[in-house]
Model the fold of this input.
Amino acid sequence: SSKILARLRSLIEQIQREANFYNLPVFLVGSLAGVTGTGMFMDIAYLTRQIAREWCHSQVTISGIFILPDAFRGALPAGYPNWHSRTARTFAAMRETRRFTVSFDWEVGYPIHYVAPTTGFAGDSVLAGSINGQLFDRLYYIDGRRRNFPLDIFPIEKGIAPAISDMLGAFL
Done:
């Protein structure tokens, strides 16, 4: 985890120097169909926000752009195993995201501890802090299904990925 923290801090500081941003727009793009993305997306949003605020003295606006399992239908053979577990992981991730976006007691917060209090990081609000606000400022869930020109019939690199790239270009 120290490599992730160092990399996030380095990138935020580099962008601050080169682009002179105080409120940095951050786009977290990933999949909620697999294990890695569903296991890390909220941690990365939390760490990015905390590192920017506590270590880099700046703010971030975090937009989450997440690909849903149906977007992979064009890339996977028919009858692909474990489809139901992908849907279950996605549902769990979306439920957790809702918890930290809509229905939450912000005054009390939710503790996030990446280290045990006895390791000397107890005063570090990044590694042993709490969520006291929304993790994401904007959330977009993309599956590629639509009546005209569906994107979920193509492999990711020929359908959803170029569409997300265009979306990011429009934002920037």
The chain has a mean pLDDT of 82. Residues 35-55 form the longest helix (21 residues).
